[in-house]
Design brief:
mainly alpha; 188 residues; single chain; Four Helix Bundle (Hemerythrin (Met), subunit A)
Amino acid sequence: MSKVIWKLREDHRNMARLLSLVGREINALREGEVPDYYLVESILDYLMNFPDLSHHPIEDMVYAKLKERDADAADALGNLSDEHQNLDTLIKRFSAALKNVLADETLPRDWFAGIASDYQETLLRHMQMEEVLFFPPAMRALTADDWKEIEDRMTEGKDPLFGGETDRKYKALHKEITEWSRLFDEAS
């Protein structure tokens, strides 16, 4: 498997872990508990920044090469850029709703949970679509030279949460992910 696809899949696994935590907090809200809004805020901060700086530019390069090598497969995906723009709109809506909650605005629980769930479910569906409809055709169609070119153009931006040494602003989030993963693994 290409280093590029491995990285994109690793990013998807990490984002899915974060969405699992968001889901846990949404469930707490729906059950009448007080969710950890600051944890959700940290997750949103990461998801609003890292994918656009590192993940999506790599996908865009793979998509451009796929269009060159197998236009039909690329066309079957639709417009990846539009999908990413829709996700950006949804996360900004979720973030704005969260900021209102943190500013002590009284908002209906169901409304806020619906916005959070809409983003969570849309991102999960989007990543699944890429795993099934995008990555396999790209792995078949792109040449070794194509992959090398993409690797050479990939920025070496360090993932501030999952890249080894966690940035200070994500330390609490990293600790929560580690604990959540441990509990999840024990339950499996």
